[in-house]
Amino acid sequence: MFDLLPHLLNGLVLGLLLALIALGFMLIIGLMEQINLAHGSLFALGAYFALMLVGPKPPLPADLAAQWLQIPLGWRYGMALIIAPCLAGIVGIAVELCMRRTYGKDPLYGLLLTFGVALVLEEIIRLTWGTRDHVLPVPAGMSGAFLFSDLIWSRYRFYAAGMAAVAIGLVWLLIEKTPYGAMIKAGAHDSEMVRALGVNLSKLRLGVFVLGTMLAAFAGIVVAPIWGIRPHMGVDAVVPAFLIIVLGGIGSFWGAVIASLLVGLAVGISGAYASEWSLLSMYLLLVAVVSIRARGLFGKKSMLEV
Amino acid sequence: MTGSSSEARLITPTMLGAWLVLATVPLWINAIGLYPYIGVEIVIWSIYALAFNLVLGTSGLPSFGHGAFFGVGAYAFGLTQFNIAANLWVCLAGAILAGAFAGLIVGLLIAHRRGIYFALMTIAFGQIFWTISVKWHSVTGGEDGLLNILRLPATFGVVSFDISDNETLYYFVLAVFAVVVMLLWRLVNSPYGRILSAIRQSETRTAHLGYNVWLYKLSVIVISAGLSGFAGGLFAMAQRSAFPDVMNLAQSGLIVMMTLVGGGLVSFWGPVIGVIIFLIARDVIGAMTNAWALYFGAMFVLLVLFRPEGIAGGAKLLMERWKARREASRVLSSAPRSG
What we know:
The complex is a heterodimer. Chain A has helices spanning about 5-30, 40-55, 60-70, 75-100, 105-130, 155-175, 180-190, 190-195, 200-225, 235-250, 255-275, 280-290; strands at about 145-150, 150-155.
């Protein structure tokens, strides 16, 4: 039994990271009832923006770049964690302004629109940063490895899981403990009434979408040192995000978090027995759960089904 | 484009026109700077897109995992050829059966779904098939795919046609395409097809009219998957190989895109128009720049924003406007006479 422990721990860490990846996606689908297929590309964009700031070649004039590189890596990394999501947020504003036209129509249109956006963003990434893999440097204090119960553990994974847990907590506070969450949820159900109550719904939706993209970018930066940076990373990330949302049930915050942990554990444990096939386990988990509970673990009836 | 009188026919004037134009393609395709192989690809993808549109356009089920069925058909074609019999008809039957069987499994688990849940589940299933195709080395050859698939001769009793070069292969797939178009036209305009359209408009209402909506949805998924598998088999033969690539999310998204760009939601021929435009644009833009996906993605965004019913929808609108204007001018010109 004890030899399963590292796999369980790895699974939990993976689960937290998956929850972080799904967080922005969940916010947009849960509060706005819009599917953002560009989530993966924004996730990748966040990682690339961070690479620009932390990496060895910042896009600055030579003398400024030299000064920038003088700043310790830890500081630069910390700043990247804030600046890169903001840059991605600007892209998010542009996407939301386009997406606005699809509100109130068949949700399929929003999905298709963001599929097109995803194609564009991925191609822009290819053109700007090339197709090769990059590595995002991490401050020395966070990298390296330590020994625990005769096994070598990567320190960064635990820092990443910690950051994921903090982000999840903050988002929960925002949507459950402030009036904004309630307003936006109400707006998805009856936008006319919410407007009549004097809420500026368009601004609120823009805010949610931008927050969703910023979370996607933040997840990209946190995960990048573990999974590496490449143009395809967005697609690799968005598929588990979908799966987690469906598994947890659309519109359920804790459903998504629990689903992420389940997926993480499923991948971790199956990795112990058949590492080649561990990715398949999450799909099988989905099929198993959804054939018993049609709306996922904690899903409620949503207007996306009509 | 589709008058009510042509709906009852087996072969419509539009079909004849399309076949005739397509039949002359090898005569002039080199002259306009393209090559016969793109013709083969266009016809095969048209079959695929028409099969896909049975689910999306006719029944209103947004599938984002259709690449799985196409890919399963492609692998089945190759595997049948290597393990069972190197006969074209057997291999194609294998592709259809494998596609339909995959459709049955997926359909059983998702046929009670609709809307976005349906879309998300199809994405998950698409990924399952893709993962299997990448990981199951001993059968699928992993990332390398199945190689050395032959273009088998088409035998009809004693006569046998060699279809190994691109031009004869083109005529073979065109003949197959003609049959598929006829069958699909009959299917869409049959009572069965009408119930599918009714399901698209309102599933609840159709169910209340006493139709077993679940069975209709399941059956259309199976038919569409079988036909997609068939197209996949033809594609494997054309490419002489089968790769996992055709099954990934981006490729499954592309078929949705092609179908919508052409206007599959409003027109039977929409998917074909979309495939032609997409594949030619890919080659032409691809020859000029590596970033063709950038332009195509941008085009697609604009299309969803401003013309969600696609090119065929736009053409319909223009036709109606033109008719209305002609009508108006007729009324105007006849007005002085009557007055």
